[in-house]
């Protein structure tokens, strides 16, 4: 039994390397002695028969509509996976497209797929910087955010509370949205590599659904030491910034 | 005569700058002349008897410019060109001053200028070019140019200055759209790769948007095949065999760009054989083109600036290279956008360093690369790396971001550390 991780629209939705989270899941599964593969899904024809996890990254605003139109052809599958508990990690504009919709700064808007509650709304300026989130379910998450929109109406079920950075914005103090195993977040790039506990939680869900056992491999422990050092550097920098602000 | 006073001041400034920093080039003289004689750059650029040729684009413009100049000079043309570090306004004026006589006139039949895509549109205001050659549109220096649409727009403004011809990469969809919009009377010439060459590039060509169709036979200069460091260009009925400065399809595409542009500039005087010989004589480059002798060791420097150059340069490192130092500095604020690249061919890295060392190590580890040591202190990493015995074969190789490069040069006392 091979775990299949679908990377949705890696051509259009991989500006910040978010789609590489699919490879992170596959690598960690292999390190644990499980067979795993990443399937690139650029159109409905590429969809594999069985899907154990889905990764959808962020793209440029110019491709919002094109991406949404392709995602609409997989609307039924996305709904079914969401209901069945298949982990879906959606980042940045990929997440926004799974919401009720995206409002743009010029007043126009794009209807989303409505898989998760909430919608993306313009903010006064782009926010870029480190983002630290305390999540009751996934632990202390660290990463980078880079977005020009806030996210509203996710209050019922955020990923966690913002310790440093902007997150969903609009003074909500919250970041992301969670529905079952569908997770939307602004944490872009290799968030699963930087937050191995988050990755292992998703892998645990995948393994259980597939009737397999998952325990992180030896190689993962060595690699996670690099993740710890990267986390320490980022947490140190945000603490320094916070104390400078307090002073 | 009208620029004689400004030229004199520029010369004196250059002299003063050289006294302060012997051997150093400087943009300051250019800044001074641009300030006291704002028309100088425009007028001088427009004054070459056989006109001005501009090369721009996201990637490959330095190599293409170098190749084009070599082809033109092999045909006996007296060429003025700018060093690639002087591709913005001040540096360009300084470069012109180097060669100017006391009236400000710069000798040469034709000027071939490499133009930075960000500054080119401003430099080119009011300047007419005979020919503008454009290499490609890539997502380059992501912090500087937010998206590829912006780069394409800047290149379009440079292309608007061409009054005779534009030469474009026909595989690049952004450039083809731009070519469709050139003014009446301006010819469009093309270069590109064959379907076979594209099929053998597993990572594609690296352009933001690659066209679905390849250039038809006879519609331009086509890279027909690439084998190691040699390539065959097809130009109409002619097959031209050339040697490249290093392995890599991108060098063959640069050669096709230079060949196609030279053909336009020279017209009937163009000789395929002379062009092929000139291209083949371009000196070999290693990685990003630099091999240095430092602390009794032969060391290769490989600079990575963006995901496309990262991939190309990592691919160009000989598989099995025993000793690699990999340093990413604070200039890469967030390395996330490097993650789609694949560095697995490196196999093993001796030391990962720089202020982003843990993140770089994490990325390499997920590519399946073995890492012997992570040492964020770049000075210590360099000392230890260079103190260890030389590898049994190949050379010690340092892969670095621009900031880590500057720190490396400063630490080792090499020139250009600034």
From TrEMBL, chain A:
Pfam families: GATase_3. One of its GO terms (molecular function) is carbon-nitrogen ligase activity on lipid II. Pathway: Cell wall biogenesis; peptidoglycan biosynthesis. Its EC number is 6.3.5.13, 3.5.1.2. It catalyses: beta-D-GlcNAc-(1->4)-Mur2Ac(oyl-L-Ala-gamma-D-Glu-L-Lys-D-Ala-D-Ala)-di-trans,octa-cis-undecaprenyl diphosphate + L-glutamine + ATP + H2O = beta-D-GlcNAc-(1->4)-Mur2Ac(oyl-L-Ala-D-isoglutaminyl-L-Lys-D-Ala-D-Ala)-di-trans,octa-cis-undecaprenyl diphosphate + L-glutamate + ADP + phosphate + H(+); L-glutamine + H2O = L-glutamate + NH4(+). Substrate binds at residue 126. The active site is at 188. It comes from the Bacteria. Residues 36-195 form the CobB/CobQ-like glutamine amidotransferase domain. Transmembrane segments: none annotated. Keywords: Cell shape, Cell wall biogenesis/degradation, Glutamine amidotransferase, Hydrolase, Ligase, Peptidoglycan synthesis. InterPro entries: Class_I_gatase-like, GATase_3, Lipid_II_synth_GatD. One of its GO terms (biological process) is peptidoglycan biosynthetic process. Forms a heterodimer with MurT. The lipid II isoglutaminyl synthase complex catalyzes the formation of alpha-D-isoglutamine in the cell wall lipid II stem peptide. The GatD subunit catalyzes the hydrolysis of glutamine to glutamate and ammonia. The resulting ammonia molecule is channeled to the active site of MurT. Belongs to the CobB/CobQ family. GatD subfamily. This is Lipid II isoglutaminyl synthase (glutamine-hydrolyzing) subunit GatD. It comes from Agromyces ramosus.
TrEMBL record, chain B:
One of its GO terms (molecular function) is ATP binding. Residues 55-260 form the Mur ligase central domain. InterPro entries: Mur-like_cat_sf, Mur_ligase_cen. It holds the Pfam family Mur_ligase_M. It comes from the Bacteria. This is UDP-N-acetylmuramyl tripeptide synthase. It comes from Agromyces ramosus.
